[in-house]
Amino acid sequence: MRVISTIGVLTSGGDAPGMNACIRAVTRTAVYNGWKVYGIYRGFEGLINGEIKELTTEKVSGTINKGGTILKTARSMEFKTPEGRAKAYENIVKFGIDALIIIGGNGSLTGAMALAKEYDIPIIGLPGTIDNDLAGTDFTIGYDTALNTIMDCVDKIRDTASSHDRIFFVEVMGRDAGFLAQNSAIAAGAEAAIIPEDSANVDQLAQFIERGVRKSKNSSIVLVSESKSGGQGGAYYYAERVRNEYPEFDVRVTILGHLQRGGVPTASDRILASRLGYASIEALKEGQRNVMVGIDDDKIVYVPITRAIHQDKPIDRELIDVLSVLSI
Ligand code: F6P
To answer: Please, what sign has the CA dihedral across residues 36, 41, 43, 49?
Structure first.
């Protein structure tokens, strides 16, 4: 087993509330174990360009309650190339980094695996994304805060929807996953959610209209997942369809956008981030490599990164029934 005395930590991809709590936990647990910690700035970009500085316990003070990421983040195109990864590895050697902790979502962990396949460097992934779309973990860091943000926004939109008797399509993030849309719809008491998981099976708009929500209510709020990988979808698409197919309804669209990524992390996200950050150092001490640390049934688990990024994470069908029954 490789002896570890120096680690590097970076955040990559979309920022997520709780990333700072996670950086803090990684740093403090490593320092507690007598290790040196390097913070790598701007994700894989910083690894390529050598934007690497030591992190101490003091440097992460006062960060647990801050949104965004003190290490900054990026979506690096250069790291997708073997030449980019070669430059990154040169810096790993130059700074004497024995292992890497990567906090990020699907794209970031895919990048991590590309590096792990080419070079002998243990990598531990930590799920940091508001999308909650990584397999093998019940929750990702940032998801709970984003859910709460969406819920607060929908509560406000409800005032206008009901005052004007309107249908609102509220578009939320999630890339190709409907967790944010489905669960914020339940939390905000919305009338429906249109999610990518069901887009091939049913016409979710027709289903929503046919369920006759407007028979018992004068207004409706429908949470719509963004349509990231092209194809049909997104709030504007559904609003246009209503205008054409059901012109009797007054329709409006709200795109919540990057509002969802910011803000003070919730207690759940801070605790999750702290537990996962702590566990990432324990994983390295146990000789784990190329695993993502996740949470399953409130227990820490190690999931092969390849599984976390490639396996589909299904939506619990019961959530769909809950929303549909409770929105009558
Ligand atoms: O992966 C997080 C996420 O917020 C997705 O929900 C969204 O599709 C994407 O990032 C937006 O990325 P960017 O901030 O680079 O536009």
So the answer is: negative
Q: What is the pLDDT of residues 47-87, one digit of tens each?
A: 999 999 999 999 999 999 999 999 999 999 999 999 999 99
- Residue 228 CA: which ligand 1 atom is closest? 8
Catalytically annotated residues: 131
Helices (H), the chain: 19-32, 43-49, 82-94, 106-118, 143-164, 179-188, 204-210, 213-216, 235-245, 267-285, 305-310, 317-326
Cβ 276 vs Cβ 300: under 8 Å: yes
Distance 159 CA to ligand 1 centre (A): 28
Tell me the pLDDT tens digit for each residue of 254-267: 999 999 999 999 99
Q: How far is CA 113 from the centre of its chain?
A: 18
Residue 214 has pLDDT above 90, yes or no: no
| CA 242–ligand 1 middle distance (angstroms) | 27
Is the full-model pTM beyond 0.90?
A: yes
